[in-house]
Amino acid sequence: MHEPEQAPPFEIVAREDFSDVTYLLEIRHPLMAKAAKPGQFVIVMAHEHGERIPLTIADFDRDKGTITLVIQAVGKTTREMQQICRVGTRLYGMVGPMGLPSHLGGAKKVVCVGGGLGVAPIFPQARGFKESGAYVIGIVGFRSKSLIFWEKKFRSVCDELIVCTDDGSAGLKGLVTLGIKAAIDKHSDIDEVVAIGPPIMMKACAEATRPHKIKTTVSLNPVMVDGTGMCGGCRVKIGEKTMFACVDGPDFDGHKVDFDDLMARLKRYAEEEKKALEKWQETCRLSGLVPAPSRASAGAPPA
What is the pLDDT of residue 279? Predict the structure, then answer.
């Protein structure tokens, strides 16, 4: 007897909107929550005919059995998810955790830097370092005070927290590199800096620490496409080697990453993504739906 097809188990149990383009989804998946480690990512499909997109795990709760994703509505798929992913609905698929977990042991004093959407995935890193016994200095950067999120969560796992805003409406006025300078000026014994965010931000962080010869780790999630190493889209130059961000990383030595090549690769699918977005927006218009608002944003390639 043919068994009826089961609905996908990936129920969205919580949602929070941080701005008109940034939103949080908490998804029930007990086994994945049990296995997840800082630095890893998942592959998500919103519906049966949806695109497979890689998203960094922003948090996981082993007791609740949930995985948290913080998403920016930039391209067609992430804007579509912003419209349809509500509490009580389900994702069609979610695979993971994928990627090599971050190495958290050994460092006694660590600076964890998150800029823009990189603020969310730097949280598990900061918590992981704190749990391993390190002194953790958190640095988070936003455009303005109104866009700040998770400040209380960061203060709960950081010994010090430096908030930076572009317009000076909260914390230090300037980029996260200003926070790095402040941390280095105050602490001469920093073992490692971990930075997650748009490639141009991670490049600036690596250059800020290079003169001080501080180990700097960056997460190259923004360059991923299919997340399995098969498409070749996430090839990155690390020193003299060519590696794949999704299977060899996503963490790499920031002082060895060829960021110029990485940022050029990010533009590879710009025209295709533009066409897909325009087609989706036209479909929304004809069906009477209102497309999610658009705002230019640095970071992961539009998905």
Answer: 62
